[in-house]
């Protein structure tokens, strides 16, 4: 499938954990989800999704509790959810999702980062149509065929279930995130190596040599921006 989800997550987690960026990003995202709805994940589907994702990245409990408590206390900090689309070297496409309390600052930072790293920020809609919003789960200890049967019996719709190394990967519609999770938990599967809402490219490209080096530098620079939550692309890694 090209994505190699566990490798991607491990590399990203290792890089983010070394700078504690992942904790700050999840703290912000949990706060926003809890503030926009109930601070209880059982009655707030968006918060439940974020907390499951945070679990796969080993976000400390005190970070989660602090963000939820801040939302419960009526924190007055407001964030806008923004999406930027653009292009990298040699046909690569890049989508950036951000949470920000200063739209002008974030737009300027993202645009400058594209420009300084062999990229070009496009207009809204210039890239996203080539990606599909997708819920992705990774589990271990089960074969794809067995997992698919579990989900069918639970009447949960999925796009694809396949083996990737020692893991089984599940693709589903974003609206099915909680349904997939609950169906697997009902079968005793409570640990996920991957639990993400992502943007999957409809087709992937391969980059080599200097193009690949430039692309990786662009992605690293975008992910290092404080306001950036997620970066998606169409390059096979």
UniProtKB/TrEMBL annotation:
Residues 3-74 form the TACO1/YebC-like N-terminal domain. InterPro entries: Integrase-like_N, TACO1_YebC-like_2nd/3rd_dom, TACO1_YebC_N, Transcrip_reg_TACO1-like, Transcrip_reg_TACO1-like_dom3, Transcrip_reg_TACO1_YeeN, YebC-like. HAMAP family: Transcrip_reg_TACO1, Transcrip_reg_TACO1_YeeN. PANTHER family: TRANSLATIONAL ACTIVATOR OF CYTOCHROME C OXIDASE 1 (PTHR12532). GO terms for molecular function: DNA binding. It comes from the Bacteria. Residues 1-20 are annotated as: Disordered. Belongs to the TACO1 family. YeeN subfamily. It holds the Pfam family TACO1_YebC_N. Residues 80-235 form the TACO1/YebC-like second and third domain. Its main location: cytoplasm. One of its GO terms (cellular component) is cytosol. It is found in: Cytoplasm. Keywords: Cytoplasm, DNA-binding, Transcription, Transcription regulation. Signal peptide: none annotated. This is Probable transcriptional regulatory protein AMD00_21810. GO terms for biological process: regulation of DNA-templated transcription.
């Amino acid at each position: 499938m090209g994505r190699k989800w566990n490798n991607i997550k491990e590399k990203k987690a290792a890089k983010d954990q070394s700078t504690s960026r992942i904790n700050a990003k999840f703290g912000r995202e949990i706060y926003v989800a809890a503030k926009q709805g109930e601070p209880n994940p059982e009655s707030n589907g968006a918060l439940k999704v974020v907390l499951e994702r945070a679990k796969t990245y080993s976000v400390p409990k005190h970070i989660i509790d602090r963000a939820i408590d801040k939302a419960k206390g009526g924190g007055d900090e407001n964030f806008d959810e923004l999406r930027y689309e653009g292009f990298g070297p040699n046909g690569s496409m890049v989508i950036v999702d951000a949470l920000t309390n200063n739209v002008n600052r974030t737009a300027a930072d993202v645009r400058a980062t594209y420009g300084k790293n062999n990229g070009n920020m496009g207009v809204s809609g210039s890239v996203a149509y080539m990606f599909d919003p997708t819920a992705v789960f990774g589990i271990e200890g089960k074969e794809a065929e067995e997992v698919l049967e579990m989900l069918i019996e639970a009447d949960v719709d999925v796009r694809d279930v396949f083996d990737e190394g020692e893991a089984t990967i599940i693709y589903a519609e974003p609206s099915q995130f909680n349904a997939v999770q609950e169906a697997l938990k009902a079968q005793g599967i409570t640990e996920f190596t991957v639990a993400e809402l992502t943007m999957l490219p409809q087709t992937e490209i391969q980059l080599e040599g200097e193009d690949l080096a430039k692309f990786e530098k662009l992605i690293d620079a975008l992910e290092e921006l404080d306001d950036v939550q997620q970066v998606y692309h169409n390059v096979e890694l």
